[in-house]
Amino acid sequence: MRVLAIDPAIRNTGYAVLEGDPRKPSVLGYDVISIPTKLNQSAALSAIRSHLVNVIQKFHPDEVAVEGIIYVQSHLTAISMGAARAAALIAAADHGLPVYEYAPRKVKMAVVGNGNADKSQVAFMVRALLGLSETPPPDAADALAIAIAHLQASDPLKAKLLARRLV
Questions:
Q1: 67 assigned to active site
Q2: What is the rounded CA–CA span in Å between residue 32 and residue 129?
Q3: pLDDT tens digits, one per residue of 19-54
Q4: Is residue 21 annotated as a catalytic residue, yes or no?
Q5: Which of 9, 87, 117, 161 fits 49 for a cystine, CB–CB 3.0-4.6 Å?
């Protein structure tokens, strides 16, 4: 199975493409889609969707895994994060890809073994688990962690604990 994992945000959306065995997946690619602050929100959302469409066309994933909604202090932050998430979901839906959602705590639990792990712990474990030569940027590391959690959820018993299918 090949999975595209997305950590959506309006200015820095992380993505990763992994394939294969949950115990030793192959990393096909990862990066951060950085959107300049000079672009307004609608242009930023269009750019996120376009970039993810290019990623889908390049890697041909079988499934998409996306980070679930997180609690944030500001309703404006929540709205912009939700909009970025929607851009990612539309890119997946346009290609008929099934989408699975993972709660951030469950991703951290799957990768670090601690649902309260911080970003540096997640990045460290992602690097170790995937045998990367350098630590990925935080948003890409989060996407890699989501991909790892999704591959682990290929076990039907774990899938019910980790994921919620959206589409």
A1: yes
A2: 20
A3: 988 878 999 999 999 999 999 999 999 999 999 999
A4: no
A5: 87
